[in-house]
Amino acid sequence: MIKIIRNLLxxxxxxxxxxxxxxxILWLSLIPEEKTLSEKTLTIPLETHNLPAxxxxxxKPDPTVDVTIRAPNRMINEISAANVFVKLNLSTATLFQxxxxxxxxxxxxxxxxxxxxxxxxxxxxxxxxxxxVMLDIVPTVIGQAKEGYGISKIEITPPRVLxxxxxxxxxxxxxxxxxxxxxxxxxxxxxxxxxxxxPKPELRLASPRTRVRVRIFLEEIKPSGKPEPKRx
Length: 232
What we know:
This protein is mainly beta. It has helices at about 1-10, 15-30, 75, and strands spanning about 35-50, 55-60, 65-70, 85-90, 100, 105-110, 115-120, 120-125, 125-140, 140, 150-155, 160-165, 175-180, 180, 190-195, 205, 210-220, 225-230.
């Protein structure tokens, strides 16, 4: 009996192998394309949304998330970081929570695709309350006045500006400076528009104003070294 079975298997084995291969190819061709799935892993930027207006994000989460996606073969190559989004909703965030889970509901995918894995499954971040404070503005003057001239005073309008930022980063003793003002070519009192430069990168202006008017009062200096008002 064993010999008979072996003869059946061995006899014309080339034709039998070819028939099996053709049958497999025919089977693959009959499977709907939608039923043939593939997977790919993408590194996607993590976006934070709906941060409460009275809070600051002082320690940001990991900037990217690895997402493994399963989709039909016909569309798998069309899926990329350009059409997959990971969004962390912070609308209910509190000062005390520092770990936030990630799940498939936070990931926007093309129709027909699904999330297989997310790494990491949670992220860490830190929030602080927003604080506002009025800070003095100080001019940044560069260069030297021409020979025979000196600066008697400098006026800034407005002299202070409202600044906001994380409560741990903002201090009333901080100063807002202006962009550099070159006085080396001045021969008369002059008004200059200057940009505002904040003392720390975590701070921002609380109003649309980004420039101030700086008036530089220039005087002639007598040979004795005492300044005298410039003649009109």
